[in-house]
Glutamine--fructose-6-phosphate aminotransferase [isomerizing]
Amino acid sequence: MCGIVGILGNKPVAPQIVDALKRLEYRGYDSAGVATLEDGELDRRRAPGKLRYLEEKLESEPLGGNAGIGHTRWATHGGPSEENAHPHSTARVAVVHNGIIENYKELKSELIAQGVHFSSETDTEVIAHLVSEQLDAGKTPEQAVPAVLSRLRGAFALAFLFRGEDDLMIGARRGSPLAVGYGNGEMFLGSDAIALAPFTDRISYLDDGDCAVMTRRGVTVRDCDGSGAAVSRTIQRSLASAAQIDKGNYRHFMAKEIAEQPEVVGHTLSHHLDMSAGRARVPEGLDFAALDRLAISACGTAFYAGLVARYWFEKYARMPVDIDIASEFRYREPPLNGGGLGILISQSGETADTLATLRHCRQQGMQIASVVNVPTSTIARESDVALPTLAGPEIGVASTKAFTCQLATLASLVIAAGRARGVLGADDEAELVGALIELPRLMAETLKLEPQIEELARTFAKVQDALYLGRGTSYPIAMEGALKLKEISYIHAEGYAAGELKHGPIALVDEKVPVVVLAPFDNLFEKTVSNMQEVAARGGKIVLVTDAAGAEHAGETLKTLVLPSAHPFVTPILYALPMQLLAYHTAVFMGTDVDQPRNLAKSVTVE
């Protein structure tokens, strides 16, 4: 979740870029840098640490130039250092980057074999060298960038500056947000509206696959992941004073927050993983080898994240796990001991029942770790170890990006636990870390199913009841899907373990009840499909959520949503997205207040 700023201005832009980066410092603060064009030549200044160190460097070594790009970084590949700070450049191009290039190792090996020298550990530097290669081959910048984009696998936002091109900047996005700002004889590029607020209130938001070619006269946007044809993006007014909570070009905050998930999950993973080494970082203060038990507790959607984590911890770390809804934990009076770890999960870090559970665990001598989105919250402060989810502000009451970031954090923690306990070998760890690294791209691909899901929601908007079924880690996601539908559409919905269908819920099935079946093609697929056939035999309307292999074996359904194939470890995170989209569009068709559903609050601070 790094921050990007670009300016084609009429005066030296470095001071403006730094001011804009200050507004984006919440997105990353490991290092920062600026590159500008002066007399047609690229020059840059970079510094590790907080943004003030870059300011100090620019005071002693100022940059001229009326065109420039800047970046504030949250480290993914390579630690915080001047060499790894953005912009990365060659003699011909400078680039800033938000996201993860999954196939950078293959691309880097190819370039090294051609004699290219690398000066950083980052995935981003690969992009600069690939673009230079295209320019050296005689292509224009407008041709070179799309040619390189077609070779990149991952989710990203990019901004490019070129030697000798004082009136040109190119931006591109795939999975990570990027906005274009329109001035008077000036143009701007930024990660979001808050960065551009000091310069203009006229904003357009790029869509996935867009490539924006900017001059001071305006911008041409092309579909670089498709036909290459020019496309139109609406210019709208942005409220500068409320830029951080601007819905952008989305109708609701919930829609915006669903769309942000590839980016914020990538940001979260970059904090908890060493992507270059293929390792999970062990949080300081946690010795998993010395622990004999885990107790997980949370409320609402966070509780379902804990349920998924129980499956993970028991399988990949061989740790016994107790899990309770926080409002029940203390009153059940479970036996606890000082050799255990309590994991508390809360988006706000202020949830009253979860906080009370934390204090109860503390009184029983347990070590405390928390998974929270607000690092200054009470739960974070009272924990021995606070694990940030880095989802950014979540305005919609129904949790979306906070949930998937909780899962991403817990998944990283599970890998660290499994390795520390000797359950996972180095190859196992690298495999699971690799699956997580792919996740932002897979999430971006999954979000492309939205038109299909929107059409399906027309059917759901007419029903009174719905069932959601899943096995293994899909079972908690089934419960989460049902909760989302209840929360914002007010339709009665229940999530069940698929094997429990015949123990009661099947009595509800008829031609009026849609049944959502979550069934990735894994070792549980056949059993889940058998339960699905029990529904079909009773006239139920089946909505199957699976992958390409599962779709081939599915049989007849009302609708089959085909998600990208993914490692079983990450499917619960991926399959959460269509559940969110289905609830969202159903609620929109029903005309409910999506962002502020009746009777609900964002943070529950009373028992």
